Amino acid sequence: MAKMKSSLTNMVLVLVGCALVVATLLAWVNHLTEGPIAIKAEKTLADGIKTVMGTENLTVAGTDTIKQLVDNKETAFVIHRTVGKDGKALGAAVETTSLGFDGDLKVLVGFSLEGTILGYTILHHTETPGLGAKAQTWFQKDGKGSVIGLNPAQGELAVSKDGGNIDAITASTITSRAFLKAVNQAYSAYAQQQAGNGQTVNNN
Predict the structure, then answer these.
(1) What gap in Å lies between CA 170 and CA 176, rounded to an integer?
(2) Other beta carbons within 10 Å of 170
(3) Which residues of the chain have pLDDT under 70?
(4) How many CB atoms are located within 10 Å of the residue 203 CB?
(5) Residues in contact with 41: Cβ distance below 8 Å, sequence separation at least 6, in sequence order
(6) pLDDT digit string (tens) for 29-80?
(7) In what side-by-side order are the strands of the sheet with 104-112?
(8) Rounded Cα–Cα distance for residues 133 and 127 (Å)
(9) Whole-model pTM?
């Protein structure tokens, strides 16, 4: 069998062949992991809703998507309406995202019917470990910058450097501002949904 002559065409064909094989393998691996990843994300969200609402005894009665303009960009907020065992409304858990120090900061915030913050959890972040990553605990009930029990209806939450009364994470003011912005945005979307005006998409 004659050796294939070395040429630009032959090299391109070999590279294209290798690329196709790699792409096929990646697609196959992605297909295998897609289901488990989705299941894990659903469980994380379900557990998060119970955490931020402060009770295991609840059911998600429905999910709405509220769209608002944030920094001149249409942004979607997902609102999970919850009810207790007796069927009475408890409030809602709201998915919200803002730009942190090193990327998106996605937060789930629980609100009572009156708008009081019941709890929160960080769903996703790329903040610096040991600094901005402290947002997961800093603003909790026993944290130095606790927001639990506050109601944004009485005024937007802000760090002390900006005239507010929330202590920022040490050396992470940007992350602190991003977190509080996310919470304020979540409340605004929740209030809009409660009022029943604006653009609401009923998912179920």
Answers:
(1) 9
(2) 12
(3) 1-6, 29-41, 197-204
(4) 10
(5) none
(6) 666 666 665 666 678 788 999 999 999 999 999 999 999 988 888 999 999 9
(7) 117-124, 104-112, 89-99, 73-84, 58-70, 200-202
(8) 5
(9) 0.77
